Amino acid sequence: MKRIGYYPGCSLLSSAKEYNASIHAVFEHLGVGLEEVEDWVCCGASSAHATDDLLALALPARTLALSEGAGLSELLAPCSACFSRLLLASERMKGDEDLSRSVNAAIDPLHYRGTVEVKNILDVLVNEVGIPEISARLVRRLDGIKVVAYYGCWLTRTMRIPPFDDCEDPQSMDRILAALGAEPLPWSAKMDCCGGSLGLSEEGLTQGLCRNILGAARAVGAEAMVTTCPLCQANVDIFAYKHKDEDIAVPVLYLTDLLGVALGCRLKGGHWRKKFIDPTGVLNKHALLS
Amino acid sequence: MAEAMDILPSQVIRMAQLGRGEELLHSETIWVCVSCYTCSIRCPNDIHIAHVMDALRERALKEGIAPKRERVVLFHQLFLASIREYGRVYEAKLLAKYEAKSGELMKNVPLGVAMFLKGKIALLPHKVADIKGVQETFTRVEEGEEG
User: What are phi and psi of A208, to 5 degrees?
Assistant: First the structure.
């Protein structure tokens, strides 16, 4: 069995618990063992990089050093924010000796040498597991369900680090969804920002973003939005829930929710109740829950 | 997010070149920027504008300049305080403190209750074992910057 380092991040322990559950179920079915980094710390997310560059490197560096110490050469971070912070910290330290020295001084006695490859979930699914392998294990095709793949900001905006997919028009999630039998629709908001960490503090500013994203999904006739980022899921799902009267809601699912259905994983009874906009109507319409 | 900015990303770079950094530190823009990296990825001169925004925010805070969007800074401070205390974010306490301190008490309570009922808020913090190490990292970062 292939093994890979796993960094769930804070969201997957709370607001995105069901994402964590579906990831574990799906990877088990795909024969990939997830080895959680022991004692990982929060990546610092936007709050660290928006206020202190050294702290924004030191927090991910602690986790990277722990992963390296545990002999993990690859680290899967399913949350886009965690992925971005870990990747940027790792790559900036690799490329800059002085910087690496200051960051390592801040995390001593831990030390990061720069040997961990940080991966996002789409990269692992498409380039390591592979779409043929996923297709071979399907037990239920998702035929007929119209979806939009919502990538959000940080998966491919990796700045000077070559992205794993096209940075303006990524296709990897669309390809996975198509392989499951779903119909991924082309749409205009696949890379649009959900408002990230400002979703709570400056709701007035970010609601325009969520309204546009849902509007774009509705405009092409999507029955569900599919994402791999817990921030995107929460911001858009909660916005739709708070603005029920506007008739713009679209259920927002994790890619691993649908992969779980297609691979025949056992998702717990309460799994679908974790979403604010209930997806069971759409899933039942396509006979995906029976 | 550009519609909520008083100075547009391209203008931020031009003003920095012209030595008008002080105006940038007082701007609304630096606190409204969500770090989506769209401007950075599309800049024809390959300038990482979003990272420039980070640097401006950091400097504004260090110089004690009152932020135009106080709640954004409050959220960041409480978020980092949570990591410093537990090594990971403890949402329940973060949200309660934010509600109390932002003057928006009760505004998000219905949502908080709904999240709680959906099991989306962990009741207890997930504290890391080496919390001492995490706190040392915070202290060293602070001391390094003072010294």
Answer: -65, -35
